[in-house]
Amino acid sequence: MITHWITSEAIAMRIPRILPDNPEMMEKTIITCDDDYRLTGHFFRPATDVPRGAVLIAPATGFRHQVYFSFAAWLSEQGFAVLAFSNRGIGDSRNGIPLAEISSDLVDWGTLDLPAALEKLVALAPGLPVSLVGHSAGAQLIGLMPNFAQIDSYVLIAASSGHFDNLKLKTKLAAKLLFHGWQPLSVAVKGYWPTKIIGFGEDLPAGVARQWRQWCRSPGYVENSFGEEIRQHHYADIKAPVLSLTATDDHIAVPANVEDFLRLLPNAQIKKHFLEPGSFGLKEIGHSDLLRSRCKACWPHILEGLESNG
Question: Is 246:258 a contact under the CB 8 Å cutoff?
Fold first, then answer.
């Protein structure tokens, strides 16, 4: 049961081996956060003479930014400047530091990493309307950004609260066993969560693992830390257009969990679309695949959210 859940939802987190057709369209960039931590990203220049906008790709938990290269290259071809990056402790943004020595958590990703990446994008592509495409955690953390007002529109991919009790029985049991059994045990032994060995993305800092478990076991996800680890947030301040895209076969972002998260954005202009894999000639999309090249047929729907930045 656990193997089935991991295979169906996490295998897409493997790093793609195919680089953009024109490697000159992208360049490596270093992002310095307010606490001086350095993140690694890649900037994709727009391939058209007249740029349409700038897009920040906010990654899912445990996803290296290289996972999004095909999607970023496609956006570049559509005329967008794009920045993809890895959060601290993940991939190239681990900076050679032993993972057990990295004390970061999800709040750090939202309050330090995302804002710094946004500032870097604005500096690299000045004067363009800015959109954020957030995948899973990259969508869930948008209200922690103090500079959120610089974002003109959002596209939220597989964004939900991830609340365990709203999942189907098999997925719920597998998730609870992973998060409440193996996670605390492995973190206690290793000092981090070794998710890579089960194909569940990159290994995670202990703080990220702890908050992920804490936030998924009750409704509201990030809301569970309001007033405690999160003293200030901006979810209710977001008024920009928000396009929520979720696959109908997503076992994590089920409709109840999507609604549970979107209620944190009461003043945003929200549109919701649930994508049926068969409508795009696909057998499955799941939680992880919408921004993978095999789901390229779905990507024009994302343009709806990017074009709403007007």
Answer: yes
Burial classification of residue 72, based on how many CB atoms lie within 10 Å of its CB (0-12 exposed, 13-18 middle, 19 or more buried): buried
Structure tokens at 9: 């939802």
Please state, in angstroms and rounded to a whole number, the distance separating the CA atoms of residues 229 and 212.
Answer: 13
Cβ contact 153:242 at 8 Å: yes
Under 8 Å CB-to-CB from 58, ≥6 apart: which residues? 114, 117, 132, 133, 134, 135, 137, 138, 139, 141, 142
Q: Mapping DSSP to helix (H, G, I), strand (E, B) and coil, where does residue 156 land?
A: strand
DSSP secondary structure letter of residue 60: P
Confidence of residue 17 (pLDDT cuts 50, 70, 90): very low
Q: Give CB contacts under 8 A, 24+ apart, made by 196-199.
A: 198/6, 198/10, 199/6, 199/7, 199/10, 199/11, 199/13, 199/14
pLDDT digits (tens, 9 = 90+) for 74-113: 999 999 999 999 999 999 999 999 999 999 999 999 999 9
Rounded to a whole number, what is the distance in angstroms from the first to the last CA of the chain?
A: 46
On the CB side of 106, CA atoms within 13 Å amount to 28
Per the CB < 8 A criterion, the answer to whether 84 and 67 are in contact is no
Pair 158, 247: CB distance under 8 Å: yes
- Which DSSP category does 269 fall into? E
Give this prediction's pTM.
0.93
The residue to which tokens 């369209």 are assigned: 25
Q: Contact at 8 Å (CB) between 118 and 43?
A: no
What's the distance, CA 226 to chain centroid? 20
| Domains of the chain as residue ranges with CATH | 2-307 (3.40.50.1820)
User: Look-up: residue for tokens 């490697």?
Assistant: 23
- Written as six digits, the tokens of 61 are 């938990």
